[in-house]
Structures are given as structure tokens and as C-alpha cells.
């Protein structure tokens, strides 16, 4: 059961440029998405998803109404939704293990979608650009192939990736859209940025930087955000990296140094500092081997309900 556009199976042997020309409505939809103003999404009702994380919920969720992620350069943000149940998943993929990640988000959405015969699975892909190393194109191809391998029909509805998300300025390429949000109640997808990326932004970033695999961070039935427990070894040469100037960090720790958002280096420094302060998270962060659990309070903000604090 393949990846479909307008009910037709996609021929993945053809270049994506051919696919775009064969289905001009995809390009029109991407153009429409690119033309929308970027919305600033405040923390109330928001579940922010970092790189190599995913979250899935339904319109019945009384705590979370928006799933979102940003700071994607060569990465792609994927929204998978079942039109019958409204179950919606958002993830931020970087190409580390795309096939396994797609299988994981598929099973997660399907676990909320027991309405046999009613509705369909729709996927929206956003992110990447025409980067020099062609990492974006590689990830686009990986995602198309991974969805095509699924046992269920998956309908490609939004395709705003790589060449369809590219802008050029003084011979340098950049993504047009760096982040998106999806309204779980209405299914609306829009370009977005997020002033608050918490809770536990540094902890979650440290988990990624030390080689995490894709992690589910949300229990929709309990309406709880679960962070950890995460474990890593002391980060190699952390003092060396913290001594480097901004240019060195950008050149060595980014997949696309010229296209990163302005806060990239400060974010990496903050994460490295956190790793230096917590070389053994089993001692300092998760001595009881339990996750940090958060629920939304009456103001719609995350509040820790149990587990240790830093």
C-alpha cells in the first residue's frame, strides 16, 4: 500500500522535479504556504517538538491545541494526520534513521485511529532548501520512500520541501519556512515561530546532541509531557568546543552554516554548557530513573507535577 497523490501511486524512480511537474497543485499549495506570514505562537496550549522528538494527540485533548517545531534548515518537519479520528502527529526529522522514524509515527497515529473504513492518512512535508551538500534533497527522498513502504495508503497533501522551500539571496540559499505549527482541532498548518521552546529546552537538546533516537514526548491519554529519563556519556571535548569562537561552532556543528537562524550558536553553547554541568545524567538529573512529567496548568502553561528538578 503506497504513497499516493490524488489517489495515484507516486513513481519514486523519477526525480522529485518530475513529480512536482506532474502534480502542479502541490507546487501551488507550497506557494500558498510560503506566502503566509509567520505567526508567533505563544506557549498557551502549545506542545513544542524539538529535533528527533515527536508528539501525537487528538482534537479531544483538553490541554494541547497546537503542535509545532522550528529551526529546521536541512531538516524536515512532518505532520501525519488521520482524517477520521483527527489524530495528529508532528515530528522534526534530520535523516538519522528515517525509515524507522516513519514506521514509529505511523503506528502512533494509527493507535488513535480505530475507526475502520472511515477517514484516511494524510502527510504534510515542510522544510529543507537547496543546500550545497544536498542533505535536504536526500532527506526528502528518504521520507518519500519510507512512506511508500508503509502497509497503509498514505496521501501526500503538502509538499513544501527542498526546492519548493528555497530562496536565494546574494548567491546564498536559505529555507523560506523554518518552522510550522498544526492546529490539532482544525488541522490548519501554518508557518510559525516559537518564543518558548520548553520545558527543559537544554536537557532535550543535550539528548539530541549526544545521539538520541526519535523519542515520543507526549502521553495524549493522560495529557502529560514526559521528558526522559535520558542517559549519556560525558560529551567528548566539551571544554574545547566551549572555547571556540562563533564561526568555528557554526562551521563544525551545523549542517548548513550559512542558513542557520541567528540564535543557533547561543543555543549550541547553552546545550554544551548543560552537558558540561551534567556529564552523568543518571546521577544529577535522573537518579530515580523516572521521567520529568509536566501538565498544562489553568493558564495553559507546562507545570512539573512530579520527578526531580535540576
UniProtKB/TrEMBL annotation:
GO cellular component entries: nucleus
Pfam families documented for this protein: N_Asn_amidohyd
GO BP term, example: ubiquitin-dependent protein catabolic process
Superkingdom to which the source organism belongs: Eukaryota
InterPro entries, per database record: NTAN1 (IPR026750)
GO molecular function, one term: protein-N-terminal asparagine amidohydrolase activity
PANTHER family assigned: N-TERMINAL ASPARAGINE AMIDOHYDROLASE (PTHR12498), PROTEIN N-TERMINAL ASPARAGINE AMIDOHYDROLASE (PTHR12498:SF0)
Name of the protein in its database record: NTAN1 amidohydrolase
Source organism (scientific name): Mycteria americana
Classification lineage: Eukaryota, Metazoa, Chordata, Craniata, Vertebrata
